[in-house]
């Protein structure tokens, strides 16, 4: 006797197929780059799925020889750490005030921050180049730190202000009754509760600082302030034929982003889910 399947169980098949397709689309390009990073140029250009000459680890050695990856890696680490710290420190306080206090122009300020999401970065390239050069921050890591901190403001404000709205006001009121002031309440009560929001905003800001290419190329020259994404430019302009080394460099550039997101993904999902309830 045949058992009749419920409509819910019938939907599992297309849902599973859709999920597999999404996984393939997501990890397929990275797997292709990862495998190509240990192939020879001939294997890459012939789209071969086999390693006829074995695993070619020499591509990673060549990548370090062709471009100053170590120097650019140090610049990227410093710029990213400072960009994330500055952005989270300033915007957490701004987001807390916007979400907890009512005052004139509050909605205007929120809309003003939102406008930052609508302006393409390319439109600001020339004004930023002129401004950064005028204040003496051209070819300086602090010039990139200031630019990246500013570009991350809209996303950080909305993630954090949405999360602050989910925290019950009674907790702050209890702290005020016990004699805590504004800063003490924010530092001791709010900040520990807002860790998921900090992780989410921090990841977004990290990806912005680590992967940005356009401003890193335009606002710097030489090796003193350039970051890892600019290192890939060396393989395209002068050594375009060494695709294996280029793919090895792409893996080296991408790996820190994947590791950081993997370590904090639980906090990121928690922060996004909580922030989606109120806004």
Q: Topology, please?
A:
Blueprint (H helix, E strand, L loop, with lengths): L6 H30 L4 H5 L12 H9 L2 H32 L5 H10 L9 H10 L6 H11 L1 H12 L4 H9 L4 H12 L1 H17 L2 H5 L9 H10 L5 H33 L4
Helix pairs in contact: 1-14, 3-14, 4-7, 4-8, 4-11, 8-11, 8-14, 9-10, 11-14, 13-14
Main location: membrane
InterPro entries: MetI-like, MetI-like_sf
Pfam family, one: BPD_transp_1
Q: Spans with pLDDT under 50 lasting ≥5 residues? A: none
> How large is the radius of gyration?
24 Å
Q: What fraction of residues sit in β-strands?
A: under 5%
Q: How is the main sheet built?
A: none
Shape: globular
Rounded to the nearest angstrom, the distance between the terminal CA atoms is: 53 Å
How large is the count of helical segments? 14
CATH homologous superfamily heading of the largest domain: MetI-like
On the 0 to 100 scale, the average pLDDT is: 84
In terms of structural class, how would the helical and strand content be classed? mainly alpha
């Amino acid at each position: 006797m045949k058992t009749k399947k419920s409509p819910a169980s019938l939907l599992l098949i297309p849902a599973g197929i859709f999920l597999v397709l999404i996984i393939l689309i997501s990890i397929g390009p990275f797997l292709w780059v990862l495998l190509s990073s240990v192939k020879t140029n001939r294997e890459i250009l012939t789209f071969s799925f086999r390693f006829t000459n074995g695993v070619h680890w020499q591509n990673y050695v060549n990548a370090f020889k062709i471009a100053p990856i170590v120097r650019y890696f140090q610049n990227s680490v410093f710029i990213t750490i400072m960009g994330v710290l500055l952005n989270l420190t300033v915007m957490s306080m701004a987001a807390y005030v916007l979400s907890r206090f009512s005052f004139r122009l509050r909605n205007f300020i929120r809309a003003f921050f939102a406008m930052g999401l609508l302006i393409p970065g390319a439109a600001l390239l020339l004004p930023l180049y002129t401004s950064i050069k005028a204040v003496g921050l051209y070819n300086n890591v602090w010039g990139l730190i200031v630019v990246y901190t500013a570009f991350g403001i809209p996303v950080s404000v909305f993630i954090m202000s949405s999360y602050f709205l989910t925290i019950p006001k009674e907790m702050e009121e209890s702290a005020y009754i016990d004699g805590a002031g504004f800063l003490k309440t924010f530092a001791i009560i709010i900040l520990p509760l807002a860790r998921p929001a900090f992780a989410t905003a921090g990841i977004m800001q990290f990806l912005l600082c680590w992967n940005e290419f356009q401003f890193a190329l335009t606002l710097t020259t030489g090796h003193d302030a350039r970051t890892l994404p600019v290192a890939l430019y060396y393989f395209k302009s002068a050594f375009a034929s060494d695709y294996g080394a280029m793919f090895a460099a792409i893996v080296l550039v991408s790996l820190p982003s994947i590791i950081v997101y993997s370590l904090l993904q639980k906090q990121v999902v928690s922060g996004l889910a909580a922030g989606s309830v109120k806004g």
